[in-house]
Amino acid sequence: MIRLPYGEVSAEMLDAIARTVRWKTAWDLMCGEANWAARFFAFGATDVEAVDKEDFDGHCTRAYLDAWQPRFKAEVAFLSWPVNRQVPGLVGLLEQVETVIVLSRNDDSTSCGWWDLWGYLATREVLGEIQDERNDLLVYGKPLGEARAPDQLRREEQAALAQHLALSRNYRELVAELAGEG
């Protein structure tokens, strides 16, 4: 088990991540301090590249992912606790890989990822899921061509999309009310 700022990663999750990246090329997207990228090498990945979502200089942020030029085409992309706002370029990078691993939590008053990310992931095959008290691990395979039916969405996907749908609906209601339409 690994204890991280956002929760714990169980031995079962670590084993699933290791099996998924072994003998593969991987991108650690929104990597923070790149701790996962180092683990991927230990798990047997053939090459790993890590890039963060932004740089913070104390005054402003600038996106990295939307301008990033990877050294190689990865087979696996990894996201751990994706930020709960839109990240330009993220979905485009995920479209390029065979497998996506997501470690996150959306159903305990936390929010990981944004509607564009979860909407995209809902169009991919789910290869595996490990639910835990503090985190969920989802492993996605090939694109399906369309979104899975609502009853096929996983707990994490349902919670993420419900939160953003509620935010969107409340926002529209507020705008309508302020405009005198509600």
| Secondary structural class | alpha/beta
N/C terminus separation: 51 Å
H and E order: EEHEHEEEEHEHEEH
Q: How many E-type strands? A: 10
Query: How much β-strand is present in the residues?
Result: 25-35%
On the 0 to 100 scale, the average pLDDT is 83
For the biggest sheet, the summary is: 6 strands, mixed
- Unreliably modeled segments: 58-62
Number of helices: 5
The strand line-up of the biggest sheet is 4-3-7-8-10-9
Bulk shape: globular
Helix content: 25-40%
Radius of gyration: 17 Å
Give an overview of the whole structure:
By secondary structure, the chain is of the alpha/beta class. The protein is 31% helix and 27% strand. It contains five helices and ten strands. It has helices at 11-21, 35-43, 90-94, 115-121, 155-178; strands spanning 2-4, 7-9, 25-29, 47-51, 54-56, 61-63, 76-80, 99-104, 124-131, 136-143. A six-stranded mixed sheet has the order 4-3-7-8-10-9. A two-stranded antiparallel ribbon has the order 1-2. Strands 5-6 form a two-stranded antiparallel ribbon. A hairpin with a 2-residue loop joins strand 1 and strand 2 (7-9). The radius of gyration is 17 Å and the shape is globular.
